[in-house]
Specification:
This is Flavin-containing monooxygenase. The protein has about 525 residues and is α/β, with parallel strands linked by helices. It is built from 17 helices and 24 strands. It has two domains: about 260 residues, FAD/NAD(P)-binding domain, CATH 3.50.50.60; about 180 residues, FAD/NAD(P)-binding domain. Strands 3-2-1-7-22 form a five-stranded parallel β-sheet, with helices on one face. A five-stranded parallel β-sheet has the order 9-18-10-11-14. Strands 4-5-6 form a three-stranded antiparallel β-sheet, with no helix packed on it. The termini are far apart. Bound molecules: flavin-adenine dinucleotide (FAD), NADP nicotinamide-adenine-dinucleotide phosphate and 2-acetamido-2-deoxy-beta-D-glucopyranose (NAG) (3 copies).
Length: about 525
Amino acid sequence: MAPKRKKIAVIGAGICGMISLVSLEEEGGFDLVCFEKTDQPGGTWCYREVPEEGVGSTMPTTILNHSKEIGAMSNFPPKKESNNFMKHREIYEYFMDYSRGVLKCIQFNMEVLKVRRSDDYEKTGKWRVTVKNRLSGETSTHVYDGVLVCIGHINRPKMPSFPGQDLFQGRIMHTHSLKGVSFCKDKTVVVVGMGCSGLDAAVETSNVAKQVYLSTRSGAHVINRVGHRGLPTDTLVFRRYLCQLLDFLPYKVVGWFFESTYLDLQFDQRMYAVKPNHSFFSKDPALNDQFGSKLLSGSVIQKPNIQRFTKNGVIFEGDEVTECDVVIMATGYTWKFPFLEEGIVMKEEGRINLYKCMFPPHLPHATLAIMGFLLTFGPAFPSGELQARWVAQVLAGKCKLPSKEVMLKDIKRRHENNVSRFGPSDKTTVRVDCIQYCDEIASQFGAKPNLFKILFTDPKLFLKIIFGPSVSYQYRLQGPHSWKGAREAIMTSMDRVVWPMTKRKAAEVQDGFFRRLIHALLRLILP
Ligand SMILES: Cc1cc2nc3c(=O)[nH]c(=O)nc-3n(C[C@H](O)[C@H](O)[C@H](O)COP(=O)(O)OP(=O)(O)OC[C@H]3O[C@@H](n4cnc5c(N)ncnc54)[C@H](O)[C@@H]3O)c2cc1C
Ligand SMILES: NC(=O)c1ccc[n+]([C@@H]2O[C@H](COP(=O)([O-])OP(=O)(O)OC[C@H]3O[C@@H](n4cnc5c(N)ncnc54)[C@H](OP(=O)(O)O)[C@@H]3O)[C@@H](O)[C@H]2O)c1
Ligand SMILES: *[C@@H]1O[C@H](CO)[C@@H](O)[C@H](O)[C@H]1NC(C)=O
Ligand SMILES: *[C@@H]1O[C@H](CO)[C@@H](O)[C@H](O)[C@H]1NC(C)=O
Ligand SMILES: CC(=O)N[C@H]1CO[C@H](CO)[C@@H](O)[C@@H]1O
């Protein structure tokens, strides 16, 4: 008799849900169903004119913050014609192509209301999932062998409250519902928060507003998407030999190195009104290419935190009243898994108890995982994909988790490291460095490239993996579902980067070593 197929429920058909479906399908042996509460797949990257509660939301102008090669799926290189920084429509299409084979598993307008342990959970590890059909209002409950929670965590706006905020007569909103900027025409706008959303909001509104103020408590290091020679910054800096310095040197030293050799050349942090008082590696990087020019033109003025609101304006710390019409909170997002049974995802001493940010350690069965619950320093999609490939192995019974004690100890140790680097916050536990985290997850199921072996068997590939852009195809060189095209994809990744602009190969638009040396020497005599 063939072994019984396991029934798996995937909750949410955003990018993470689609990646999970693809990985489970690739492993095989599962009956898959995916519940999606809206009427379309794609989650955050399915653009909506009207934001949906609890679903990530972008502006019409949002583009990805990582480039196509750096964020690619490990066996699905983007087309060479694709733009490097994709617009929301392009990333949506890329993932539609990628998940073509599993779209049939998705049931739309189905909202999961409850996930509970089944009556025989202790023995079987099964879950009872209650779903509501949002069109008919009907609810139904079924039992599954496994549940993957893929509902995202950048979708529940965090609204601060400042003294006097309710006296304010202007408009207050969160970037979650910012869809256009025409309502800011000739208005004075205050944007609160200097993450990616804050910078986007300040830059966009300043194109039409009378004046924009960007208020920030702790400042930020801002990186451009465009790096040296017009190449995407991340393809230049997201390389093993650079990122893995973090494994050998204190993060403050590596941060100082990066700030002085790269960041400060774009815009010296001492030029900001509110200077960041943290190492580059202690907070999410904030990405924006126009911010510098907006500061230089005075269209955006940086201000410290808001002390309090007045009837028609705000008072920044140590400042007089600044009158304004609109306040946009770009203050980030909180997390919640509202349908999960109490006590599954637990917060203890400020720590989120999830093994490798995925598995509740106290459950006796590894049949439920939280997917994509990461704040990645770097691109988020490759780590999500490795999570999904690992979960597929775990659900198939080919990988085991360690004991509860070992898992808890690991969570605690890492959380403490994270607190010392990032400071305590809501999501400190789930902050990860991309390459390190990817390696860690890949090594759970044998997909981490054996660099030592590659050094001897294929030195050219070795050099590319260490010194070239760190692309996820490297996790298909070995292990389950390895891919014959992986080596070629790694070797040619820079070709796909330069192609959309130049229609040429990387080598044809690159300077040789001596030219670069001469350029570097010439730069020494410039101011
Ligand atoms: C403005 C903005 C820009 C961003 N830019 C980047 C970027 O450049 N690079 C990057 O890597 N990340 C970026 N992110 C992070 C973003 O969260 C990820 O890119 C990615 O979209 C996360 O996918 P997800 O599937 O985990 O979550 P989501 O995209 O939020 O999808 C979750 C899905 O689950 C569904 N769902 C929720 N609750 C239920 C329920 N109870 N029942 C059924 N279905 C449910 C939702 O409808 C949704 O479709 C950005 C986020 C925002 C908001
Ligand atoms: N593709 C893109 O271009 C793009 C666009 C938008 C967002 N994103 C991604 O989406 C995620 C969310 O980004 P985000 O910018 O919305 O959130 P975020 O990165 O969490 O930034 C929130 C900002 O708000 C500030 N803040 C929070 N609470 C505050 C309070 N009570 N008072 C004053 N300031 C407060 C924070 O300041 P402190 O630092 O002082 O805490 C921080 O500057 C990020 O991972 C980001 O990379 C990407
Ligand atoms: C900057 O950070 C250091 C330690 O990280 C702290 O001692 C100092 O008070 C901070 N300065 C400001 C102006 O916040
Ligand atoms: C891009 O956004 C993702 C997800 O929000 C984040 O984890 C990552 O740090 C951001 N990357 C950069 C380079 O800002
Ligand atoms: C620097 C450090 O130890 N970071 C850890 C933060 O927490 C995550 C999740 O447990 C780990 O993967 C990181 O290694």
